[in-house]
Amino acid sequence: MNKTESAAVLEANDVSKTYGELEVLKDVSMEAERGRVYALIGPNGSGKTTFLKILAGLLPPDSGEVLRRTGGAERAVGYLPQQPSFRDGFTVAETLRFYTRLLDEKMGDGYVSEALGDVGLSDASDRHVSGLSGGMTRLLGVAQSRVGNPPIMVVDEPTSGLDPEMTGRIFETLGGIADDGTAVFLTTHDLDRVARHADEVVLIHDRRIAGSGSPDEVVNEHEAESLASVFDSVVRGGGRG
Ligand SMILES: Nc1ncnc2c1ncn2[C@@H]1O[C@H](COP(=O)(O)OP(=O)(O)OP(=O)(O)O)[C@@H](O)[C@H]1O
């Protein structure tokens, strides 16, 4: 894409990261626009979480830079860790109210109920957080990380351990948030869902981005039948890496 015309809300330039002797990312660059879901895929330990945290500004790269063009948004990035947890003893609505008031004292119950509606938790607003299923806890986490409508959302493995129905709900919810003008980054091992729901795939392997583009583009570029076969060929050494 021509950078002068780019509407990129986020730009990573030559990002590298090493833990001790372990080089995880080497000169990784990408751009991202609002309104799109970016799925970071790759084998275990390939650096997806590391890259997500660098994109979110939670971890500094050793070299390179991440530019976020968030237009002075009060909250530039919403981050949801892999296992969100909430303090016992409060309901879903009370919990979300707590986070909204941290950002803006004036954000009222209308915002809370709308935000719970957006993630499909209206009926659960009076339930205690300790009694939520894993999937509902993730949905509450999505609502919490979205407070203030950050233009960038970074969500680490939102569907791990969830059943197919809840996995679908999470992907649809994140797709809806992207449609509202957010750049959504997520990591997942669920390649079928990526093929169906992601706008862009970022395949991380051997310290680099080994493939990127829409799911169809990535599959066609590798003359493969599915993302799973692209994954296999790249990770098992048959790809262009
Ligand atoms: N704080 C750290 N200190 C040392 N090594 C780390 C640290 N964080 C991650 N690593 C290592 O860096 C590599 C990349 O980890 P990362 O969690 O980014 O991978 P991932 O692709 O998200 O893995 P998974 O799919 O298993 O969640 C792994 O080998 C991991 O053990």
UniProtKB/TrEMBL annotation:
Domain ABC transporter: 10-231
ATP-binding keyword on record: yes
Pfam families assigned to the protein according to its UniProt record, in alphabetical order: ABC_tran
Entry-linked PROSITE patterns: ABC_TRANSPORTER_2 (PS50893)
SUPFAM superfamilies hit by this protein: P-loop containing nucleoside triphosphate hydrolases
GO molecular function term, any single one: ATP hydrolysis activity
Record-linked CDD domains: ABC_DR_subfamily_A
Assigned keywords, A-Z: ATP-binding, Nucleotide-binding
Alphabetized InterPro entries for the sequence: AAA+_ATPase, ABC_transporter-like_ATP-bd, P-loop_NTPase
Identification of the protein by name: ABC transporter ATP-binding protein
Source species of the chain: Halorutilus salinus
